[in-house]
Amino acid sequence: MLVDGFGRVATDLRVSLTDRCNLRCSYCMPPEGLEWLPKPELLTDDEVVRLVRVGVERLGITEVRYTGGEPLLRRGLVDIVARTTTLRPRPQVSLTTNAIGLARLAGPLREAGLDRVNVSLDTLDRDTFARLSHRDRLPDVLAGLAAAQRAGLRPVKVNTVLMRDVNDHEAAPLLRFCLEQGYELRFIEQMPLDAQHGWRRDDMVTADEILDRLTTEFSLVPDDAAARGSAPAETFLIDGGPARVGVIGSVTRPFCGACDRVRLTADGQIRNCLFAREESDLRAALRSGASDDDLAERWTAAVAAKRAGHGIDDVGFLQPARPMSAIGG
Ligand code: SAM
Questions:
Q1: pLDDT per residue as tens, the chain (329 positions)
Q2: CA separation for the pair 180, 30 (Å, rounded)
Q3: What is the DSSP string of 154-188?
Q4: Which atom of ligand 1 is nearest to the CA of 194?
Q5: Is 119 strand, coil or helix?
Q6: Is 120 annotated as a binding residue?
Q7: Which of 75, 178, 190, 248 shows the smallest number of beta carbons within 10 Å?
Q8: What residue owns the CA closest to ligand 1's atom 26?
Q9: How far is the CA of 25 from the centre of ligand 1 (A)?
Q10: Is the sign of the CA dihedral 171, 323, 284, 70 positive or negative?
């Protein structure tokens, strides 16, 4: 098992398949993009599957989430998913995506065994989408979402980051849209993980503000706290239920004490926290002939060193060197 010094057990593996993205959301990446990881540094499909297999077979990983960058840009994605679903014990396999291209890939991914998707959608307004992401792709995202629902990649979850004076007036309309379509919406507080280092705490739309905006139109009753487990979202029953909305207060309501996540970057580094400042290089070990036992041992040591919390609110907080797109969100 992957246990840290505070007794937390990591069972949820987030795997970044690429640091590239076809959007440029301002809370994540500058408009001109970033210097991408050189191809030889990226794990090959076989290397990804081998490390995931070690995690599942030897280290107690029960959930695998493919992410990025934009994972739909990874050519081998469908095959990687198919091979992941043959592992035993069979992990839950999901994808975090901006849904551009999902209209075409939802069916093949479902056939490959993908269980469900989280789709990022910050606005329903085409101009706002283009301004926020520097790409005019809202229709593609909506088509991808609908295709995921049709293909049975359920529950289809939607992730939204609200930014002040950009899309923060859309909290209630986004929730209404998701209720109509049968998607589960989660709002995420903006975190200091943008490559431009433009995050300001005072500017962030907080969980409290998000809830205030929603309760002007909906009645929200907190879900049973015990049922939350390690889930990052606090969930609320909407207008008596059964539909729910989630709020992930990563900054103002941190949930590090219940964290069960560990991350593998596209270049084969284990990160024990989104905000970790150290990484553990499994790619070098793997390419110099490490056995599965060696890899498992290195991975175990990396998780054992996990800090108690991300420390965003500490005076000495330092943003990690890698931005969100290169870590895997
Ligand atoms: N490209 C995929 C997508 O759009 O979902 C996967 C990667 S993206 C980095 C994963 C999630 O991280 C998205 O929901 C995105 O909104 C979120 N994200 C990116 N930067 C963030 C930040 N600074 N604070 C909070 N969430 C962020």
A1: 999 999 999 999 999 999 999 999 999 999 999 999 999 999 999 999 999 999 999 999 999 999 999 999 999 999 999 999 999 999 999 999 999 999 999 999 999 999 999 999 999 999 999 999 999 999 999 999 999 999 999 999 999 999 999 999 999 999 999 999 999 999 999 999 999 999 999 889 999 999 999 999 999 999 987 778 888 899 999 999 999 999 999 999 999 999 999 999 999 999 999 999 999 999 999 999 999 999 999 999 999 999 999 998 888 888 998 899 999 98
A2: 33
A3: -S-EEEEE-BTTTTGGGHHHHHHHHHHHTPEEEEE
A4: 23
A5: strand
A6: yes
A7: 75
A8: 190
A9: 8
A10: positive
pTM for the whole structure: 0.97
Phi, psi of 53 (to 5 degrees): -60, -45
- Report the residue among 168, 204, 310, 324 best suited for mutation to probe ligand 1: largest number of ligand atoms under 8 A from its CB: 324
Atom of ligand 1 nearest to the CA of 119: 5
Residue 279 CA to ligand 1 center (angstroms) comes to 20
170, two tokens: 């859309």
- Asked if 137 and 119 count as a contact pair (C-beta separation under 8 A), the reply is no
178 is in an annotated binding site: no
Q: Return the structure tokens found at 122.
A: 């910050």
Nearest partner of 319 among 27, 18, 4, judged by Cα:
27
The C-alpha angle 199, 322, 23, rounded to 5 degrees, equals 70
3-class secondary structure per residue, 272-323: CCCCCCCCEEHHHHHHCCCCHHHHHHHHHHHHHCCCCCCCCCCCCCCCCCCC
96 is in an annotated binding site: yes
* 253 alpha carbon, distance to own chain's centre: 18
Return the structure tokens found at 68. 């990025």
Within 6 A (CB) of ligand 1 lie: 21, 27-28, 67-68, 70, 96-98, 120, 159, 161, 188, 190-191, 193-194, 324-325, 329
In angstroms, the CA 282 to CA 268 distance is 6
